[in-house]
Predict the structure.
Amino acid sequence: MMDPDTKKDAGIFDESLLCLAPMAGYSDAPFRLLCAELGADFTVAEMASAEGLVHGGEKTADMLRFIEGEGPVGIQLFGANPVAIAAAASIAGKSHPAFIDLNFGCPVRKVVRKNGGSAIMRDLGLMERIAGAAVDAVSIPVTAKIRSGWSEKEINFLETGRVLERAGVSAVTLHPRTRSQGFTGTARWSHIKLLREKLSIPVIANGDVRTVADYERIVSVTGKGIVMIGRGALGNPWIFGEIKNAMEGRPWSKRPVDDIVRMMERHLRMEVERKGERVAVMEMRKQYRWYLRGIDDIKRYRSGLSQVESLTGTISIFEAIREECRERCKRPA
Ligand SMILES: Cc1cc2nc3c(=O)[nH]c(=O)nc-3n(C[C@H](O)[C@H](O)[C@H](O)COP(=O)(O)O)c2cc1C
């Protein structure tokens, strides 16, 4: 258990309003930079395997490289072995993240089968050892991300939150769905309110915030505190600024398609610089669907973008969209 006198500096969690969720395959350095520039107070990197880091996996280590200007970033680790988690937290700490986040919410079979992610919500003794080991291993704050429980019959977020607080964790993020739900149904924001009432550490609210109106609703249900946005930021890194503008009573206008295309191009070019053309072009294909969601006029370019194989090929499709939209494209709703 942590000595209260040595409580780590967790100011970032008192001062922030909005953050980007960790999303495997999406929350990499270029996307985090875009979100930070557009108003995310901090971001959390896609989950990295503790064992992978400890055993020197190159791809995992690559996840620890930040881009200048990204702002505060949390590195998220998953794993079920307290010794590996402690070692991985020390390694991750060398990249100077703002904090280390522990993944106790991942529902994916590959992770759960090895007793990682949300499976640890069924073994709170192990969770306490993992969290305690991470807290002892680093001098920066450690946070944890949880779900409401494993299943409808095993809802235990309140007990889990208390265990994490006792272990010295500085903040807890709750995505209020069960592991069995995966991403179906709706996030039960009332669970966040209950957890906020029970814990003295900050509870970060997460789940189903895609618009300014969603943000207003989640705050009205859960009370004040940080809101974490995941899918709502995909193809829409502007969401952070939109919410902040709305909160400050400043008007914000919808983005012209030209701005969206420019953003896709910038995102793509940053990915190419970081991962090389082949990997970046392939990985970016899935992002375009998010960016172009709701813009019916350019439907016919979607299949081209989902099959494109080179940077120049992608840029020429972008040019065609721009050309077509200059006159007549509707903005997304
Ligand atoms: C594609 C994708 C990848 C995700 N990867 C992670 C991850 O690496 N770590 C994690 O804790 N949660 C992960 N999540 C869950 C999100 O962080 C978040 O809790 C969830 O999407 C609910 O928030 P949202 O409704 O704002 O998207 C992922 C979600 C998606 C859609």
The domain at 257-324 is CATH 1.10.1200.80 (Non-ribosomal Peptide Synthetase Peptidyl Carrier Protein; Chain A). The longest strand covers residues 142-149. Residues 257-275 form the longest helix (19 residues). The two ends are 50 Å apart (CA to CA).
